[in-house]
């Protein structure tokens, strides 16, 4: 069966005065229709740049320097801007972490949503308004007719994010790339958005890449999980299996650092050190300077190797035993 999205050895580099920063360095993954992939990792791991690369939204001095991004049989890297312009918003939508990257501050919400609909479909303004109203209701915005007449500055940050999510849902796209879209939302609305997104994926076959640092959220949302570190995927597999038995020490550290189950006042578990500079990466395994299991064997860069059925890990000394910690949303 043909994959909806097949990313092969993607490389996105930033050419700076101080050197080449390999923000995405040989990332590969695929998505079927209706499948949800969680892309997790610390800030600076390359998650967002991976999402921007798929849609051709990487600004200079960054650029895709290698690899393929095959969407429904078409290579987006080879097709360039003309192909991407046709797909953006209609077949591939992106929800940004900052809603003001989506919303124009000087245009009313109805103008922006109607233009989004009519940019890809020849429908009347009345039909475009109807769909816009339905999309606002879908993301939990009350009094949609009143809200459509408002400007972005009249909304709270959380409300603006909901509008941005509604715009992404307007065309029921084949693929949505969501870059931490619920960070500014309260828990109740977050749960509602997650439920709506899951329902959309089931009913319409929309595939979803959910970029986040929140393992608790993605554990209940994603079918598969890909953990990124220093521009590379270091572990991938079915979400339930990765959460229950993380093989890579970095994945284990992320799960152990979740405060769930800690008694009040107890010290939180941390991953020592900081993410390395992309301009000065360590030799061999990029996580080795922070890893409690590192030794001289880690001075050679490990490859992403099979680690059981439908799983892979980039580590010389992977964990074999489960941590005994259950992660819940």
Automatic annotation (TrEMBL):
Keywords: ATP-binding, Cell membrane, Membrane, Nucleotide-binding, Transport. Residues 5-255 form the ABC transporter domain. GO terms for molecular function: ATP binding. This is ABC transporter ATP-binding protein. It is found in: Cell inner membrane. Belongs to the ABC transporter superfamily. It is a peripheral membrane protein.
């Amino acid at each position: 069966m043909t994959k909806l999205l097949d990313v092969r050895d993607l490389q996105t580099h930033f050419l700076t005065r101080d050197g080449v920063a390999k923000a995405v360095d040989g990332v590969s993954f695929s998505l079927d229709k209706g499948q949800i992939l969680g892309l997790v990792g610390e800030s600076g791991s390359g998650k967002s740049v991976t999402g921007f690369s798929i849609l051709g939204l990487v600004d200079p001095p960054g650029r895709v320097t290698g690899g393929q991004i095959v969407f429904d049989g078409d290579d987006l890297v080879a097709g360039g801007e003309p192909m991407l312009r046709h797909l953006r918003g209609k077949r591939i939508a992106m929800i940004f972490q900052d809603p003001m990257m989506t919303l124009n501050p000087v245009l009313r919400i109805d103008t922006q949503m109607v233009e989004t609909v009519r940019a890809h479909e020849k429908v009347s303004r009345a039909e475009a308004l109807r769909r816009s109203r339905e999309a606002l209701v879908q993301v939990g915005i009350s009094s949609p007719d009143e809200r459509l007449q408002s400007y972005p500055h009249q909304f709270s940050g959380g409300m603006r994010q909901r509008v941005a999510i509604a715009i992404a849902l307007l065309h029921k796209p084949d693929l949505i790339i969501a870059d931490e879209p619920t960070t500014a939302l309260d828990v109740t609305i977050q749960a509602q958005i997650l439920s709506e997104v899951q329902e959309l994926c089931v009913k319409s076959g929309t595939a979803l890449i959910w970029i986040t640092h929140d393992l608790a959220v993605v554990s209940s949302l994603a079918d598969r999980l890909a953990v990124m570190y220093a521009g590379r995927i270091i572990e991938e597999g079915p979400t339930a299996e990765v959460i229950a038995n993380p093989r890579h020490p970095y994945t284990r550290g992320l799960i152990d650092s979740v405060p769930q189950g800690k008694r009040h006042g107890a010290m939180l578990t941390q991953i020592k050190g900081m993410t390395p500079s992309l301009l000065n990466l360590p030799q061999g395994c990029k996580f080795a300077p922070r890893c409690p299991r590192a030794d001289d064997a880690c001075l050679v860069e490990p490859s992403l190797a099979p680690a059981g059925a439908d799983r892979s890990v980039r580590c010389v000394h992977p964990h074999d035993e489960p941590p005994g910690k259950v992660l819940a949303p």
